[in-house]
């Protein structure tokens, strides 16, 4: 940074110094330390008695700078809390508009919308509004637009209604926007001012009219002035030109999108479009798109009629955009075409011919090969709207043009992996459009496409995993609706299990599996992720995956082995049944012949398969259902025996550097603010210390899911295992959470979306096979790459909290006490405590599992069925057995939904007075239905319980 | 409506992040996500991006199933100017707004604006932005009007700087490096300044 203080324009030397320190820092740690130190220094400065206004302003500017350059998760929430009173004070007593602006800006940027101190601003804003000084009034109105909330409405509404008629246009336009903002909380406010707003539409100041148009677009159709507003806006429309650069023209078009273009003005809109074709150098692209969006409000017959009357075609007027080399023009062309129903221009309606010429169609089809994904997807969407059969033909054409191979010989010119990956993404884009909302058809498409892509790879034995395809499919499945996800996963796994049945008999050695490596990796990932949802038996899936194990490449074997292990855990947990006999044998065989990495993996799998308890504990510790998360959990279990010094190895300088580098790029792991200057202090220890005094009087609560997985503001227990999870995440470059942020507040820890985590996961699943390809490289496959997004945890938490809505977790009374006392009380906790009413007792999951496994199978002991009513309702019914059964004393005990075993199911234990038990598992179905499964020891009270269920 | 205005450099470091709707995740995370979306796009592609991924950060766009977050961006030298909008806003209008109004206003205020101007004067940048956009709606597009408002505030700032730094050469306030020929930012020529790699 080659700028001196004098020439920098910095507010002060302190401001210059911190900017220079940070911008010239040679490492992220150095910058973080400087930021942490500066926050501390500013805190001290502000804590001194009565800092002057200018000092206060300087400090706030520095803090704003720090907040803007801090990396995600570096600053714990509330880091700037100490400065809020000073910011409020500056906004109140600032001598100049400049000073007041800094105060307001600080609050706007750093104070949360529900912060209690926001109330303190109401009076300041009101005073500024009534000051009579245009500068202060404008500033107050600016902040009112940003700060609008229900508390402020009564204080300012009268003033605002007056100000929309103020003499000063800068105030008028801001007052209109402020009114619009306040109307979100008090809808009647807009109707009170609507008459004036309609007048302002024709204000002599253009900027006021622009604001009035924005407010008009928000007017409800029920407003008495809506009709007149629509009339005025349509009138204004007739005054605009296609070449007009004024913001007013664009705003009129946008407003008409809301209030509607009257039919009588359609010819004028067509005229404007035609004039754009005549003056291709001076038209405004935004106006052109706006006009087409207005046309989309009218039906095809009306548009056809209007075009006939005008003897023109709106779409034909866009031809010049096709001839352009500017990609933005191509975007504009496609966006305009997507606005108009194909019946108007594509020749899909009888009597209406295609308006495009052959070269234009060719050019549009050429966009299918565009490097720009957005342009390509728009083209696909356009073609799908015209006729989905075009896409099917296009798909068939691409697939048939791929080099084919028979089972015995490879294609003459196999395609390289990079090309195939790009092609896979394109093909799946098409399949996504062709199979919207149909998971089974999507799965079918995936199978077919991957089959062809595998063929195109060449020699059957050397097929590679297509990382792009894995990522694309997993992300799409994850982003889809629940039904789609389950249907897709079920269909894919059914393909595998069916292939097992059709090819019954021993698997010959070294024969490649019937599915390609990419398909197997996807299936393995989906089998793990949707293990609790799919209708395919885990046992059958394990058998099928096991069959594919021997002939697969190491990279696929790795995914299959992990998947087999996870499904084995499910078989134990679900049915208490044993694993198919051939599994261990097959894994053993693979181990004998494999290289180093797979040998280790096989050993790991065999170890866990023979240690049922340990495997269950790993599954219990999962915070998400994904395959990478499971791998991570296994690794954590492996490191359990290590010492703390080993675990926190990332505190060594070299590891810090690698972690920091990862942060700077992937921006993931979080380091708490204080950790920058007090690294040796364990973050989890510091959190525990803070809670120790508060809760010392109580016995530590047993963990329940809502607290275990830490929602926003939630606390984590400091169990060794979880500490290790944290330790691993700190050392992992992909994981956006640190012990500190997890414990203190997870709002920064939620820094990874489902999409992102899936992308990482898919990348991990691709297992770098594309680039590695060699078995020896597998040794470098660091388990730390298997990371998982916090979003998944959040989703799980959400599910858990909804699942435990009526049901208390274990150790409820103590949890409840702490929950009530804790400032970090969560919804899930509240839900759980709420469920304590009604005399239900609780049971530990282990106890339930033990009893469940001990209860006999068979017709008399085990029953299952569907019943109407949500899980909550059924739980209440069962609870009624406990409360209302007068002939005999019955107790109902409940284990939470989200704690393994049987995650996602409510576990209810009905205990009769004679000690006989009936165990019930309830799983939520669709539309308030519930799947129940019941086990009892002989006759017991099963019939009474079953009566409550049916 | 405009939901976010972001400026970050080619390393992904945010220089301005203004959100007009509540976020579901931290602002820094959103900036990083958007940076990852944009920085991977090679030159020569259109300036628009359909970004369903942002639903996880900004919340789902309700109503119309076709309704999605759209990203409009422009790259100038070391900086990306990014707007996140919904379908009520014209993405092509926003593209014009970035270049013809926002960047032009910055350029007038700072005279050949550079990344360091945004670093040392981000409060001024916020002010300029506030003159252009309020509450996610475009307030003013007349660059002369915006410039007049900003200059008025800059005058006060300059006086304040001079009084706080009596030995300075009077280069405070806006246009901080007018006399320093060693650090031209190369806004249009694409040269990098001496800003660190963070």
TrEMBL record, chain A:
Localization of this protein: Endomembrane system
Biased composition (Low complexity): 655-670, 729-747
Listed GO biological process terms: intracellular protein transport; vesicle-mediated transport
Chief place where the protein resides: membrane
UniProt KW keywords: Membrane, Protein transport, Transport
Composition bias type Basic and acidic residues, residue spans: 641-654
Presence of the UniProt keyword Membrane in the record: yes
InterPro entries, alphabetized: Adaptor_Complx_Large_Subunit, ARM-like, ARM-type_fold, Clathrin/coatomer_adapt-like_N
Region (Disordered): 641-688, 706-752, 783-815
Domain Clathrin/coatomer adaptor adaptin-like N-terminal: 79-384
GO cellular component terms given for this protein: endomembrane system; membrane coat
Protein known as: ARM repeat-containing protein
Organism (species): Coprinellus micaceus
The organism's taxonomic lineage, starting at the top: Eukaryota, Fungi, Dikarya, Basidiomycota, Agaricomycotina
From TrEMBL, chain B:
Presence of the UniProt keyword Protein transport in the record: yes
GO CC annotations, alphabetized: endomembrane system; membrane coat
GO biological process, one term: vesicle-mediated transport
Classification via Pfam families: Clat_adaptor_s
Family, as annotated: Belongs to the adaptor complexes small subunit family.
Cited InterPro entries: AP_complex_ssu, AP_mu_sigma_su, Clathrin_sm-chain_CS, Longin-like_dom_sf
Descriptive protein name: Adaptor protein complex sigma subunit
Keywords: Membrane, Protein transport, Transport
Domain AP complex mu/sigma subunit span(s) in chain numbering: 1-152
SUPFAM superfamilies noted in UniProt: SNARE-like
Places the protein is found: Endomembrane system
């Amino acid at each position: 940074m080659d700028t001196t203080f004098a020439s920098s324009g910095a507010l002060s030397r302190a401001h210059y110094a911190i900017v220079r320190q940070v911008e010239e820092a040679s490492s992220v740690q150095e910058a973080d330390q400087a930021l942490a130190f500066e926050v501390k220094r500013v805190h001290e400065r502000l804590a001194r008695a009565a800092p002057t206004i200018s000092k206060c302003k300087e400090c706030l500017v520095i803090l704003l700078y720090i907040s803007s350059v801090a990396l995600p998760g570096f600053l714990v929430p509330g880091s700037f809390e100490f400065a809020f009173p000073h910011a409020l004070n500056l906004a109140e007593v600032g001598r100049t508009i400049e000073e007041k602006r800094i105060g307001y800006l600080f609050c706007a940027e750093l104070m949360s919308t529900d912060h209690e101190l926001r109330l303190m601003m109401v009076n300041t804003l009101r005073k500024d509004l009534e000051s009579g000084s245009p500068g202060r009034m404008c500033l107050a109105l600016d902040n009112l637009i940003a700060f609008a909330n229900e508390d402020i409405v009564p204080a300012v509404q009268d003033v605002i209604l007056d100000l929309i008629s103020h003499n000063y246009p800068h105030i008028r336009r801001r007052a209109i926007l402020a009114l619009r903002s306040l109307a979100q909380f008090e809808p009647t406010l807009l109707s009170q001012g609507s008459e004036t707003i309609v007048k302002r539409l024709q204000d002599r100041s253009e900027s006021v009219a622009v604001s009035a148009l924005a407010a008009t677009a928000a007017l409800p159709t029920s407003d008495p002035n809506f009709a007149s507003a629509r009339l005025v806006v349509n009138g204004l429309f007739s005054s605009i030109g296609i070449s007009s650069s004024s913001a007013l023209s664009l705003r009129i078009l946008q407003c008409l999108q809301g209030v509607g273009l009257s039919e009588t003005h359609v010819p004028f809109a067509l005229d404007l479009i035609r004039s754009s074709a005549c003056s291709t150098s001076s038209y405004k692209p935004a106006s052109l798109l706006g006009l087409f969006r207005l046309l989309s409000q009218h039906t095809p017959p009306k548009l056809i009629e209007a075009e006939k009357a005008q003897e023109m075609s709106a779409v034909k007027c866009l031809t010049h955009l096709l001839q352009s080399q500017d990609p933005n023009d191509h975007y504009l062309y496609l966006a305009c075409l997507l606005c108009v129903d194909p019946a108007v221009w594509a020749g899909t309606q009888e009597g209406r011919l295609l308006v495009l010429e052959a070269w234009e169609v060719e050019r549009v089809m050429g966009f299918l090969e565009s490097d720009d994904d957005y342009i390509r997807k728009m083209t696909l969407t356009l073609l799908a709207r015209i006729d989905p059969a075009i896409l099917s033909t296009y798909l068939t054409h691409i697939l048939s043009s791929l080099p084919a191979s028979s089972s015995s010989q490879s294609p003459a010119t196999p395609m390289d992996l990079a090309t195939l990956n790009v092609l896979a993404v394109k093909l799946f884009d098409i399949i996504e459009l062709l199979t919207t909302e149909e998971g089974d058809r999507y799965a079918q498409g995936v199978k077919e496409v991957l089959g062809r892509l595998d063929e195109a790879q060449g020699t059957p034995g050397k097929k590679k995993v297509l990382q792009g395809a894995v990522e694309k499919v997993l992300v799409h499945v994850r982003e889809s609706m629940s039904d789609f996800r389950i249907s897709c996963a079920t269909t894919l796994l059914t393909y595998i299990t069916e292939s097992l049945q059709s090819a019954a008999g021993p698997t010959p050695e070294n024969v490649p599996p019937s599915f390609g490596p990419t398909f197997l990796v996807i299936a393995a990932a989906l089998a793990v992720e949707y293990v609790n949802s799919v209708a395919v038996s885990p046992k059958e899936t394990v058998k099928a995956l096991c069959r594919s194990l021997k002939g697969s490449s190491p990279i696929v074997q790795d995914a299959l082995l992990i998947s087999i292990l996870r499904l084995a855990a499910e078989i134990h947990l679900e049915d208490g049944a044993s694993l198919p006999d051939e599994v261990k044998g097959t894994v053993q065989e693979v181990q004998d012949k494999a290289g180093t990495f797979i040998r280790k993996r096989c050993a790991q799998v065999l170890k866990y398969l023979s240690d049922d308890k340990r495997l269950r504990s790993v599954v219990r510790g999962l915070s998400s259902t994904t395959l990478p998360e499971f791998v991570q959990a296994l690794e954590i279990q492996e490191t359990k025996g290590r010492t703390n010094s080993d675990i926190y190895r990332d505190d060594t300088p070299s590891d810090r550097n690698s972690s920091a580098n990862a942060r700077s790029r992937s921006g993931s792991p979080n380091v708490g603010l204080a950790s920058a200057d007090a690294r040796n202090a364990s973050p989890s220890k510091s959190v525990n210390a803070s809670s120790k005094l508060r809760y010392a009087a109580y016995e530590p609560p047993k963990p329940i899911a809502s607290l275990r997985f830490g929602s926003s503001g939630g606390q984590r227990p400091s169990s060794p295992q979880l500490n290790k999870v944290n330790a691993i995440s700190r050392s992992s470059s992909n994981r956006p959470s640190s012990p500190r942020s997890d414990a203190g507040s997870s709002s920064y820890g939620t820094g990874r979306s489902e999409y992102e985590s899936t992308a990482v996961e898919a990348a991990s699943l691709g297992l770098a096979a594309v680039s590695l390809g060699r078995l020896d490289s597998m040794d470098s496959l660091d388990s730390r790459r298997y990371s998982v997004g916090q979003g998944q945890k959040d989703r799980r938490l959400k599910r858990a909290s909804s699942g435990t809505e009526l049901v208390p977790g274990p150790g409820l009374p103590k949890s409840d006490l702490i929950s009530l006392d804790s400032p970090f009380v969560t919804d899930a906790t509240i839900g759980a405590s709420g469920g304590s009413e009604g005399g239900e007792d609780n049971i530990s999951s282990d106890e339930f599992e033990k009893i469940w496994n001990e209860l006999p199978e068979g017709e008399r002991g085990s029953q299952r069925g569907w019943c109407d009513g949500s899980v909550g309702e059924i739980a209440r019914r069962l609870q009624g057995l406990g409360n209302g059964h007068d002939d005999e004393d019955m107790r109902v005990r409940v284990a939470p939904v989200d704690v393994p075993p049987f995650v996602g199911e409510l576990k209810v234990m009905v205990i009769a007075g004679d000690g006989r038990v009936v165990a019930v598992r309830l799983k939520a179905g669709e539309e308030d239905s519930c799947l129940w499964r019941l086990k009892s020891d002989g006759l017991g009270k099963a019939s009474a319980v079953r009566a409550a269920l049916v | 409506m405009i939901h976010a205005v972001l400026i970050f450099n080619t390393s992904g470091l945010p220089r301005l992040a203004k959100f007009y709707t509540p976020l579901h995740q931290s602002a820094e995370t959103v900036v990083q996500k958007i940076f990852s979306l944009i920085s991977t796009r090679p030159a020569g592609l259109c300036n628009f991006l359909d970004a369903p991924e942002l639903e996880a950060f900004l919340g789902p766009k309700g109503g119309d199933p076709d309704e999605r977050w759209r990203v409009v961006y422009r790259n100038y030298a070391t900086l990306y100017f990014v707007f996140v909008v919904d379908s009520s806003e014209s993405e092509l209008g926003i593209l014009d707004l970035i270049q013809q109004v926002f960047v032009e206003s910055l350029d007038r205020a700072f005279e050949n604006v550079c990344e360091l101007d945004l670093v040392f004067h981000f409060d001024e940048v916020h002010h300029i932005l506030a003159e252009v956009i309020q509450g996610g709606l475009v307030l003013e597009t007349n660059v002369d009007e915006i410039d007049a408002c900003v200059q008025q505030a800059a005058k006060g700032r300059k006086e304040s700087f001079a009084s706080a730094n009596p030995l300075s050469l009077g280069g405070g306030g806006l246009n901080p490096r007018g006399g320093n020929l060693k650090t031209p930012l190369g806004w249009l020529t694409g040269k990098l300044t001496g800003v660190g790699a963070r």
